[in-house]
């Protein structure tokens, strides 16, 4: 179980990951790109955005730091480009935390199965903090 930090970049996440990997002496990591997403007919990706980073992760001194570029077509807002992720192998714990944190907040994505997680969702809590929730039983090798 962990709470991870998510950093969102404006098209330069790959460069940031490589920089931080060098700074902290970490082996460079795998990059999952938006082009690797299964296509969604309502949200076609422009060709020039398919190589943008959807997810990469570095473990910096015991803390997971996740990196991605802003979703194509979404605004990038400096200062609002950091969120927290509850990553857990206990779906009931994820659901309980989600249900408590959504009170007075705004659900961005209901908890649901995605191609990368059996349970994933997101919200902004009543204090304006963005949270992501993800089931991970340890098999996600990023």
**Average pLDDT rating:** 88
Structural class: alpha+beta
The residue fraction in helices comes out at 10-25%
- The radius of gyration computed from the alpha-carbon positions, rounded to a whole number of angstroms, is 15 Å
Order of helices and strands: EHEEEEHEEE
Please tally the β strands and state the result: 8
Largest sheet properties:
8 strands, mixed
Q: Taking strands numbered 1, 2, ... along the chain, how are they ordered across the largest sheet? A: 2-3-4-1-5-8-7-6
**So how many helices?**
2
Percentage of residues in DSSP E strands: 35-45%
Distance between the termini: 15 Å
- Categorize the overall geometry: globular
* Low-pLDDT residue spans: none
Model description:
This protein is of the alpha+beta class and 142 residues long. It is built from 2 helices and 8 strands; from the N terminus they run E-H-E-E-E-E-H-E-E-E. It has helices spanning 13-23, 91-101, and strands at 2-9, 32-33, 53-60, 63-69, 82-88, 106-112, 120-124, 130-135. Strands 2-3-4-1-5-8-7-6 form an 8-stranded mixed sheet, covered by helices on one side. It starts with a strand and ends in a 7-residue tail after the last strand. Pfam families: 3-dmu-9_3-mt. InterPro entries: Glyas_Bleomycin-R_OHBP_Dase, PhnB-like. It comes from Paenibacillus rhizoplanae. This is VOC family protein. Residues 6-133 form the PhnB-like domain.
